[in-house]
Write a structure and sequence with these properties.
By secondary structure, this protein is of the alpha+beta class. It has four helices and eleven strands, in the order αααβββββββαββββ.
Length: 269
Amino acid sequence: MIPERVHPSDLGTSSSSSPPPATAKETTATHPSFQEKPKLPPGTYVIQVPKDQIYRVPPPENAKKFKSYTRRATRRRGRGCCCCLLFSLSALLLSLAIVAGALYFAFRPKPISFSLDSIAIRNLNLSSSASSPLNPEFNATIRSDNPNKRIGFRFRDGGSVNVFYGGVALGNGAWPAFYQGPRNVTVFAMSLTGSGIRLSAAERDGMVAAEGRGGVPLQVAARVPVRVRFGAVTTWTITVKVGCDVTVDKLTTNARILSKKCKVKVRII
C-alpha cells in the first residue's frame, strides 16, 4: 500500500495554530485615568503659582557662600578700578613729562629776575608816642627782566605785595597785571599802604636805632599768578613768589637803597 503524500502547504494548514498574543492597551491623555484628579487627604489645599514668580531661598550655608563670593567679586572690581586709575595717572604724568622735556629742549627757558630800583617812605613817624598807630606809605619801583628769546610771561590779576620790618607787616598793595614779551625789561611802580599799624616799644626802638646807624632792613614779598607762553602754547596758571631783602639808609621820601637781593620761586601746582 502506497503511503499518502503530504504537500508542504498542507502542513501549515493542517497543523494546529496557536492563539494570537493579546495586544497591550495604550493609555493616552484622553484616558479617564488622566482626567481624574488625585484624591487629597482632608484639609489639604493645592495652590498653583506661575513658574516665573517662584523665588528660591537658599539654605543658610549657601547664603553665607553667596555673600563670600560677592564680597570677593567686589574686592576684585575695586582692585581693578585702582589699577586702572594708577595706570591712567602714570600715563598722564609720563605724557606731561615728555611735553615738558620737549618744551625745555626747544625753548631753553631761563628764569625771570626782579629787583627793587627805588622806594620812597611816608608817614612812618617813629618820634610819635608808642601808643599812636602808624599809617605808612611806600612807593616802590620794580624792574622785571625777561631774558628768554621765545618765552613770554603774562602776569594776571590777583597778585599781592607786602613790606615787612622784622616780621611786622607795614603795608601791602596789588601787583599790576601785564604781559611781558621775550627779551623785555619792564619797570613799573606800585603803592603799598598800611593802616593802624601798632609797633611794640622794642620794635620801635629797633627801627630808630637802625635808622641812626644808617641802615634799616626791610623785606618785600610778592605772590603773583603767572601764565607762561611758549610760542603758541600757554601753560596753566602758576604761582611766582618773589622775596627781596632791602636795606635803606632812612625811612623818608628820599630814602636810598644801600643793598638789595631778590629771589624767585615758582610753584607749578
